[in-house]
Structure formats: C-alpha cells, structure tokens
Amino acid sequence: MDKFYNEILYNLEVEIKKLEIETDCPIQRIETVIPIIIQYLSEVKVYVLKNGFKNIEEEIHFFKKLKPTIVSKLIYYNAIYKIETKKPNDKKAIRKYLKQELKKLKRYFDNNLEFYKYYRTKNSFIDEKLFVRGKHDIKLSLDTIYFETDHRFSTSHDYKIAKIIANDLIQIYVEDQLNNNENNKNNEKNNCSPLIWTGNKTALTELIYALYSQGVFGNASIKVITKTFEHAFNVDLGDFYHTFMELKSRKINRTKFLESLRDALIKKMDEQEEM
C-alpha cells in the first residue's frame, strides 16, 4: 500500500510543481490542478476498493495519514480558488476580505478544538472509532460531509484531518497575501512604484542564474540574488532551484529566454539604424 501510495503522491506533486512553473496565474493554475488531484484520488480509491487492507492497523494508517494528504491538497486548492475569484480590487477591501478568511479558519479551529488536540498530540486511543470504515460515533463531532460520502472509502474523521492540514496551508497563503498587500500599501506611501515582472517565472530564473554564473553581483549567493529580484519585481519564484533543474534537463535550447533577449536587442538596434 505505502509503495503504491507514495508513487501516486510523488507523481501528483511533480505535476503540480510543473504547473506552478509554467503557469503564473493562480486561477488558471488551480483550474488545471484540481482535476489532476481528483484523478489521482480516484486511482487511490480504485486500488483500495480492489485490494482492501491487510489488517485494521493498515486501514487506520491509510485513513489517518495517507488519504488526508491528497484530500488536503484538493481542499486547499479549492479554497484558494474561491479566495482568488472573489477577491475585491480595492486594497483596503482586500485587507478586510482576507481578515475575514482568517476568521473563518479560526472558527473551524474553535469548533473542533478537541480533535485538534487529539491529532496534534499524536494520540491514538480512539483511532479505531475515527479511522476504520463502518464505525462512527455521532457524539464525536462529525462533519455533515461524512454522511454524503462513499463509506467504502471514508471514515468518520479522515476528512477532518485533511481539513486541518489544508487550513494550515490556507492560513499561510492568506497571511502572505496580507503581507503583500501591506507592502504594496507602504510602497505607495513612499511614492515607490515597483516594476512588475510580466514574463513567466522560468524566464526570470534563467536570467538570474545567468547573472549569477557571470558573477556580476560579486560573491552574492544565488538565494540572495533571487530574493532581491523577487522583491524588485514583485514576484514569487517558489522553488527556484527546482526550476533551474528543469532548465538543465531540457533536451534542446536550454537558454531560450536569454537567446530571445539577444534577438530582441539586435532587432531593436537594427530598427534604429534604419531610421
């Protein structure tokens, strides 16, 4: 089970990472990511229904540790999609909107405090009630979604763990958005109008590594250079080292962006000579 699941999870994360590199728009990226997660989750369900579990311990392990990892990604991306598509344009309104999203997360935490304690303190004394199919106790704060799910592939609390994992990630995302909103507000107060990088992130990573390789910033590390560019151009490059590995693995034209820069500059020079 673990071998099959780990392979599924690895392939899923590779596909998500690839989309993060290729697609800058979060809404478009999520519209592509969600069907992929659903497909992989469907494959896991087919496997479980076909093969079952060796014993109760394996079943508990799957529904407490394995399945929630994938489901949490689905919850997370669906939540971010809703946040992004409903986000207002006005900066003041955005701040109020994001704070409301944080309050929603706090309410869920408050309403499920006892289960949070059980999960985060790594307790297991009632795992057979929470993470074995066909066993549920209405007294244990069940989410309504449990009664609507396929009980062959669900327990009373596996979704709740996925929700906890997702909410932690959503909180980080929303707080980052709040910080970015505050930084933009401060920039405006200082009459600072930062440049916005409109190319894709892979192109900027290629440029940064080229400058780093040439040593134009002295002994500055690639991390320091990258963070400086992210701040200057208001862009988050994420796992830029992984992006560089993707550039290295290209079979042809590994410096596509740099070559396009050279061609654009030569064209501009030629046009001005003809004037």
Give a verbal description of the structure.
The protein has 275 residues and is an all-alpha fold. It is 73% helix and 0% strand. It has two domains: 2-189, no CATH class; 201-274, no CATH class. It has helices at 2-22, 26-51, 56-86, 91-111, 113-120, 127-130, 145-148, 158-189, 201-214, 222-233, 240-248, 256-274. It starts with a helix and ends with a helix.
SSE blueprint and pairings:
Blueprint: H1 2-22, H2 26-51, H3 56-86, H4 91-111, H5 113-120, H6 127-130, H7 145-148, H8 158-189, H9 201-214, H10 222-233, H11 240-248, H12 256-274
Helix pairs in contact: 1-2, 2-3, 3-8, 4-8, 9-10, 9-11
Organism: Flavobacterium kingsejongi
Protein name: Tetracycline regulation of excision, RteC
InterPro entries: Tet_reg_excision_RteC
Short description:
This protein has 275 residues and is mainly α. It is built from 12 helices and no strands. The protein folds into 2 domains: 2-189, no CATH class; 201-274, no CATH class.
